Structure formats: structure tokens, C-alpha cells
Amino acid sequence: MYEGVVQDLIDELGRLPNIGPKSAQRIAFHLLQADPVDVKRLAETLLKVKETVRFCEVCGNVAAAERCRICLDPRRDASVLCVVEESKDVVAIEKTREFRGRYHVLGGALSPIEGIGPDELRVRELMARLADGVVTELILATDPNMEGEATASFLARMVKPLTADGSLRVTRLASGLPVGGDLEYADEVTLGRAFAGRRKIDG
Amino acid sequence: MSLHRDDGIVLRAQKLGEADRVITMLTRERGRLRLVAKGVRRTTSKFGARLEPFAHVDFQTFERENRALGMITQAETIAPYGGQVVGDYARYTAGTAMLETAERLTEEGEPALQQYLLLLGGLRALVGGEHAPGLVLDAFILRSLSIAGYAPSFRDCAGCGNEPDDGMAWRFFSLPAGGVVCPACKPGGAAVPQQATVDLLGALLAGEWESADASEPRHRREASGLVAAYLQWHLERGLRSLRLVERQ
Hints:
heterodimer, A: alpha/beta, 9 helices, 12% strand, globular, B: alpha+beta, CATH 2.40.50.140, Recombination protein RecR (chain A), zinc ion binding (chain A), DNA recombination (chain A), zinc (chain A), TOPRIM_dom (chain A)
């Protein structure tokens, strides 16, 4: 145990995700030895992020204002909506530079074992966004794991009435082999998915 | 330092650190275990997809003394029930409640072969699609409770063991008594479910699927309410997933 405020700092750092007592101690001593200007900047940023950053009222992504940068951008295609679990998925998809539509962040995935049902996610907001008929394609980009797949199939069922007249197309991100990998090392679940989602190639 | 090989059903997969997972598994030989699967969240993982909930796998662990959790070093799929469960929300929620029941009614490191075989049979019935997911779940919960030593009685009196007349069942249902009770044993506050509901509960416990499948939705609803209450009574805390089960 250290004295007073040093121990408080270690305790506070230890409450962060994936920071154990040893790591907390290491970070605390790094901060103690660091330049006061750097530490002040870090402290100010921490306060600022909590004060200014909020969630976009339209898509649920992290934003610096009421609406996020993507929702405000008129060049983005409003007819294509990509549903993701978390804000970090938006960043991952943006890095591909393949997608020019807009997003909807659910805030997680359906996980009954953790007590997370449709009411805990932004499903109602999604249905409200789809109601005006502007969106013609809904891309379900939840994680390719059990919870993500269940969420995708649940959402597909929810929007089914909207697809009946052909005004909305619902698609799911493809699953399959990683680029740069060897076929023989793929597990059977992934390889099976790759077969199920194979596409036509024009020679 | 030792290597173990066993079969198991993945009950839960929780994130750990950057790319790892803690896998809770109900195994054939050693009961419920918590194991670390390194790097399975990376897209390059060779067996991450095999360690999703509902998966029935043949796996190998590496365990060291003084270490709380063993490490999964290999996993091969025996049956990937997850793929068949996940496409149907009712099936997914019922299946998740089955996994949570199995987790709560077993002890870590205590062999539970009967619970393991019951869960395996339950998952097969669930993906088989012959019966409504809600019925499979209720039958599973009743039988799992029976194996755990909390077998309910749906015909003879749970208090004195008296048999009812003319092949009927007693109508009063009491959680503390452990099932239906005769008028003489009836404690205050006992529920009075419909006769068809009590028959349905008996059929689910005994595996008489023909009569269970023929039951009406209102009796199924009442039966699932009693099953949930009975489970909560014995677990002291309800299942998180039970509230979210979608009943048709």
C-alpha cells in the first residue's frame, strides 16, 4: 500500500478495463515521473471527453455535437443503412472506404444470458428510421458470432413487413476466409460459411 | 502440468483481455469448467469459431497447478448446434435459457454426467424442431431440476404422497412442497392451476411428447410460469435469460 493520493490513483486506474494491479501501479508511477504539462493535458482531455462527447441522436454513434459527422455529411447515401453493434465497428467499416451510406449503432447485441434483450438495444430507433421509406437497403453488420448472428436474424424478422413490397432490401455481411490465409487452416464453420456465401465469378 | 482431453458443450463465452475468451463448458467427465481460450477473437484464430455457445466440441486443455484456469489448446467440432439455433429467435432464447440452467444447476469441477447428457439431448430436440422451443425448455428445466435433486411431483401429493382418485392429479400447486398437493397438505397461498396445465407439466417431466405437443397455448403459458417460479424457488435467484424467452 502506498500513501494517500498515490494509492487512490492506483485504485482508480485499476478500475479501468484490462488494467490489473501491477499495470495500474506501472501507469501511476509513469504519471508521477512524467512532465506536469503532459499530465495536465491528459487530465483536461479526460474531463473534456466526458463533458463534450455524447451519442448522436440519429445513429447512436459517438459525436461531438447533437449529430455525428457522418449523419451531418450530405454526401453520404441516406438510402443505405448499415447496422452495427458498437461505435468502434463504424470506425472499422470506415477504414475500408467501401461504404458510403449511413450507420445505425445498436449499442450491443442480443444476449439473453447477460440479460440483454431488444429493449436494451436501439431497435425501436432503427424501426423509426426505417418508417419513412428513405432507406432502400439495410445492411446487417453485427459481429459474426452467436450474439451477432442472433441479433441479425431478429432484426431481419422485425423488418420483414417492410420488405414485402420490395421497397427495402436486407443484406448480411459475408462471412468466410480471411484474405491472405490458407484454405487448409480454415475451421469448418468458417469454411462452411464461405461455401454457403460463394459468389459467381465472370471469367 | 497436465493435458486433459474431454467432450463438452460451450455454455458461455466471455471476453477476456484483447483477444481471448473465458469459455464456460459443461464437460462429460469433469462437470462444469471455466477455461481460457487464447487469441480466439482474432480473425486468424484456428478454433475460435468452434468455441461459440451451443457448440459440442472435443477439446484438449493444458493445465498447471496453482493456475486458476486451464487453457484450451485444441478444439474439434462434434456438432455445431449454434448455427441451427441462431436463425430462429424463439429457439435462440429458449436454448440460451437451457445453457444458463445447466450452468446454474452444476458445480464447477464436479462431474455431472447426467446433466451433460440431458443438455445434449435437449439441444438435439431444440434443433430437431419437432416440438415448440418453449416446451423443450420447460421439459429441460424440470428434468434438470430432478437430476439436481429437486424433482417436482405432478400427480401424487408432494406432501404426504397420497395418490389422487380416478387417475387425475391433485390440483393445488405449492412451491415449498415441491409440486401438487392434496387438500389436506395444502399450505396457504398455494396456486390452483388448471387441470390441463398440471397434466402438461407431468407430460413434460415424463417425456410424453404426444400429449405435450397437443396442449393449448394458454396451458403452456401457465405451465411455463409455474416452471419458472419453481426454478427460481430452488435457485434463489431467477435466470436472466428466462425473462427474454420468446414464447409462441
